[in-house]
């Protein structure tokens, strides 16, 4: 039995069409504008994007700082132990920061340590002692680890030998943790946050910082500008400042391919949703095996009668056989 259908392939490996907006807005206003008029604030993936933007900007209007979509997620603090059953209402939000903390000094402090009973944000690569916890039902005990480690190493150690890095849910537990740490010494606890993110949720890790950037010189530089007076290099900046900005429109590619299938099992219903889903998975896997990059979404194309597959007419099959024989001759 031979059947034909259309296979729709949509590539979500986004190509971006950038748009410079020369109205002056702060970053949240610019983000809102881009999401309403375009797709989002600009995500920049590589040096080709940087070169294209450098060649496109109208320097007779503005030549320097334009908002792009990168920002520092300063409000994303969360605990290493994510099990929600471990926390009562409000306990995941308990904080005991030292005055002036967290301050994200040098724009590089995403992890939390305890120092004389109060919390400070530190560079995650710093080497401190750490406090692990053992959770047994309702009982929690805290254990000081004296080996100096960075935060990620401490997290891995605690998860391997205990339950996790210490979560501190209330003032009583804060006192228990503090009692394990020698006076005047620092120790990691399990609170951490995300660093730089793109407004559209992209996972792009490309960065194009200017020298000694980011530095959080104003103490609240959580947004990013591209400076076309310096070849599009990036600077961290205060989000409330008014700047021009760059939006983008996502351009995706869609292609419909005619597919002809042959099956020896005439009882197999190719229009069965489960069968169609399995075939899509197999095609998707073959694309990956052949090195096709990007997130390609596949779907079957329904025809006018609502069906996907239609058996070929006998006359059509005869013509194809005749054509094959001629090709062989």
Integer average pLDDT: 86
| Beta strand count | 16
Q: How many domain regions?
A: 3
SSE order, one letter for each helix or strand: EHEHEEEEEEHEHEEEEEHEEH
Shape label: flat
Helix content: 10-25%
Q: If you compute it from the alpha carbons, what radius of gyration comes out, rounded to the nearest whole angstrom?
A: 28 Å
- Strand proportion: 35-45%
Q: Give the termini separation.
A: 26 Å
Tell me what you see in this structure.
Residues about 10, about 315-320 and about 325-329 have low confidence and may be disordered. With about 325 residues, this protein is of the alpha+beta class. Strands 4, 5, 6, 7, 8, 9 and 10 form a 7-stranded mixed β-sheet that branches. Strands 1, 2, 14, 15 and 16 form a 5-stranded antiparallel β-sheet that branches. Helices cover about 20% and strands about 35% of the residues. The protein is built from 6 helices and 16 strands.
Descriptors for this entry?
flat; alpha+beta; about 325 residues; Mannose-Binding Protein A, Chain A; 6 helices; disordered C terminus; 3 domains; five-stranded antiparallel β-sheet; seven-stranded mixed β-sheet
Write the layout of secondary structure elements.
Layout: E1 2-25, H1 27-37, E2 40-41, H2 47-56, E3 65-72, E4 78-79, E5 109-115, E6 118-123, E7 128-136, E8 139-149, H3 151-161, E9 164-165, H4 171-180, E10 186-192, E11 196-198, E12 223-227, E13 233-237, E14 243-262, H5 273-289, E15 296-301, E16 310-311, H6 314-328
Parallel strand pairs: 7-10
Antiparallel strand pairs: 1-14, 1-15, 1-16, 2-14, 3-11, 3-12, 4-10, 5-6, 5-10, 7-8, 7-9, 12-13
């Amino acid at each position: 039995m031979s059947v034909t259908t259309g296979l729709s392939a949509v590539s979500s490996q986004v190509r971006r069409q950038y748009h410079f907006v020369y109205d002056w807005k702060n970053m949240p206003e610019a983000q809102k504008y881009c999401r309403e008029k375009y797709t989002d604030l600009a995500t920049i993936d590589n040096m080709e994007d940087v070169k294209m933007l450098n060649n496109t900007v109208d320097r007779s209007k503005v030549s320097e700082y334009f908002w792009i979509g990168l920002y520092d997620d300063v409000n994303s603090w969360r605990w290493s132990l994510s099990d929600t059953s471990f926390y009562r209402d409000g306990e995941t939000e308990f904080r005991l920061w030292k005055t002036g903390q967290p301050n994200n000094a040098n724009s590089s402090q995403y992890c939390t340590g305890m120092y004389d009973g109060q919390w400070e944000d530190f560079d995650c690569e710093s080497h401190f002692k750490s406090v692990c916890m053992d959770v047994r039902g309702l009982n929690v005990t805290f254990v000081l680890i004296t080996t100096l480690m960075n935060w990620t190493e401490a997290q891995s150690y605690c998860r391997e030998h205990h339950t996790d890095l210490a979560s501190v849910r209330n003032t009583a537990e804060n006192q228990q943790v503090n009692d394990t740490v020698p006076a005047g010494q620092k120790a990691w606890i399990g609170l951490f946050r995300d660093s730089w993110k793109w407004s559209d949720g992209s996972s792009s890790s490309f960065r194009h910082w200017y020298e000694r950037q980011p530095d959080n010189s104003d103490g609240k530089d959580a947004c990013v500008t591209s400076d076309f007076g310096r070849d599009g290099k990036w600077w961290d900046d205060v989000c409330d400042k008014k700047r021009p900005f760059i939006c983008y429109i996502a351009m995706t590619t869609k292609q419909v391919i005619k597919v002809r299938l042959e099956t020896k099992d005439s009882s197999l219903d190719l229009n069965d949703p489960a069968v169609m889903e399995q075939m899509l998975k197999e095609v998707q896997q073959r694309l990956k095996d052949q090195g096709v990059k990007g997130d390609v979404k596949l779907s079957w194309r329904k025809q006018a009668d609502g069906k996907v597959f239609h058996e070929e007419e006998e006359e059509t099959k005869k013509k194809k056989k005749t054509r094959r024989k001629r090709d062989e001759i």
